[in-house]
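User: structure tokens for this one?
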Amino acid sequence: MAATAAVAIHQFAECITCHAWSPDLSMIAFCPNNNEVHIYKFFTDKWEKLHVLSKHDQIVSGIDWSKSSNKIVSVSHDRNSYVWTQERADWVPTLVILKLNRAALCVQWSPKENKFAVGSGAKSVCICYYEQENNWWISKVIRKRHESSVTSLAWHPNNIYIATTSTDGKCRVFSTFIKGVDTRGSQSSTSTDSKFGEQIAQLDLSSTWSFGVKWSPSGKTLAFAGHNSMIYFIDEVETAPAAQNLALRDLPLRDVLFVSERTVIGVGFDCNPMIFVADETGLWSFVRFLDERKATPSTSKASQLSEALGKLYGQSKQGTSSDTVEPSKPRGGAHENCITCIVPLRKGSDGTTKRFSTSGLDGKIVVWDLENDVSIAK
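Assistant:
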């Protein structure tokens, strides 16, 4: 059996809601399940806390760190968003006008970093951009489309389309074209012909809450997860959507990541990243768990049930069952509780993501390496 793909495990807090890396990957920003954003830097052999960003009043639910402009955007249950700019040794916050009456739940910079999107519990998505004349960040809001909270966002590579998932079970794709911010392409691209807030697609695939939407590197395929232990893959969303539903025998996923055009990593309540690969015909299937230390499948139904109940109520499973041969330890190995966030780190020469990191309710941030993984399809 191959060695585990987890190359670094860092215990930063008791619980982590979200995390993001600096452009050069030397620093990491995360929320330790409170109203603060902590920034750590790696020195020689250990991580040291450099900054605490404490402008929010409630739990920080989303962080994203822009790659080219080195700005951090944070959103919180307090309905606010801040863009943090580094000035010498300090991070200076700028309030973003969101006009929300419910919690902000997720945030992501667009590929060109001239906009960012905020999903909220107000059944809306705020597309935020910088207004030079007034020196502030303002937002245009996509309303009256979602029937419940917006749980996650994903920008299409074209910088115009954005995909959303919601607790109404639907995945939607919208145009975010803003005059004066985006430029209309000279090529006959339909993405620049659509108006702001126009719904490009609505995918009624999940009967339960949906989470963790992502586009493939080319933008041709969309993937998201349902709380009913399903993962959905949709090709050609804009023209003629073709969907595949893949049922999992394990616990639901919370987030997904395309590491290549035909490989997806899914993370969630099983505490262990799952690899999904599409064959030459485009048919997706589950390959294996990434962390090789997963408990053997010989465990009985009773131990699996007690394990699931233990996770549900947040209890330790040590010694909860006498049916297992080896001590009943957490299923994942590297993670000991639900993984809620997955972030790409390093790309290889072939364009595939070779490293990514995960964080979860166990307060750990784990770095995974796929360099020698034969199951990763190009």
